[in-house]
Amino acid sequence: MGRNLSIDVLKIILAFFVVFLHMNFLKETYPVLSYILVNGLFRIAVPVFLVITGFYFFHIDSAKKLKKWLFRTFLLYAIWMLIYISYWKDNDEILLTIVFGYHHLWYLIGTFFSGLILYFLRNQSSRLLLTLAIFLFLFGYVVQVSGNLHYLNTESDSLLNDYLLYRNFLFVCFPFLTIGFLINKHRIDISIYKNSSLLVILSILGVIAEAFFNYKYISSESTDILFSLIFASPLLFLYCQKIYIKTTSKVLASLSTAIYVVHPLIMKSEFYKEIQSFKILIFLAILIPVSFGLVYLNRKLKYLL
């Protein structure tokens, strides 16, 4: 089966969303716009990545395929945890960091655990799977919002504000992975709707509107989970999936992974911290060739991406 170029292009765009999110894009110059992008639009990235992964996970239908998938996912996680080890080895909560992942690598270990759960639940009814996915997502969302509202006593408040409690394999990865899985299982197609593009635009505007609402009425703190993502992420994936452009090249898919895994390494370097002007341009001028270099290296070494 050929690859879909549209999905690979989408993954590149999403990888840059993650980069700009971690850069706190425009925070110094336009704080409100920055919040709407960083804690709104750019938050679409991870859920869509998970929906895509869940869509292809549908084909993991035997123990042999599962072992191969788990091995690849865990190896990728382990390699990059080792590459970033100098940043987390002196951490007070070293065990939590290993279990939940350092910084952006939470996504990889979260995918690993949620894939394992989904495999064992895959033969349950779709209604049960969807109900469980939505319930877990909403539970994580409520925990995060409760934390951001700071209504509770100090001890409970600090617990609710610990992102490990709500941004993890159970409340983020499993729900979106399951949605992707169900999309493939039921061969859901939004191109049969005449106004499918309008639906996608409205759902993305919903994410932006929710981010603005959060900024105004809940908290200007960082927000990982937005309620509207449960609609916007699957719709964006479904829309791009139907623009089918066949390709045999894996370069773009590998490039999106490279951008995702390597960008914090450049961000945390002394060189990057010292850049005063044209920071984003210089950063991108380094990130893109380094990412292509990783894609090339991956062809020789395997398992890097």
Order of helices and strands: EHHHHHHHHHHHHEHHH
Strand runs, count: 2
- Average pLDDT figure: 95
Beta-strand portion reads under 5%
Rg result: 19 Å
Estimate the global geometry from the Cα principal axes: globular
**Sheet with most strands: strand arrangement:** 1-2
Low-confidence stretches: none
**Helical/strand content category:** mainly alpha
Main beta sheet strand tally, sense and closure: 2 strands, antiparallel
In DSSP terms (H or I, runs of 4 or more residues), the helix count works out at: 15
Helix content estimate: over 70%
Distance between the termini: 21 Å
Short description:
The protein is mainly alpha-helical. The chain contains 15 helices and two strands. A two-stranded antiparallel ribbon has the order 1-2.
Report what the structure shows.
The model has no long low-confidence stretch (mean pLDDT 95). This protein has helices spanning 5-22, 31-38, 45-57, 63-83, 85-88, 94-100, 106-121, 126-149, 154-160, 169-185, 196-218, 229-241, 251-267, 270-274, 279-301; strands at residues 3-4, 246-247. By secondary structure, the chain is mostly helical. 71% of the residues lie in helices and 1% in strands. It has a two-stranded antiparallel sheet.
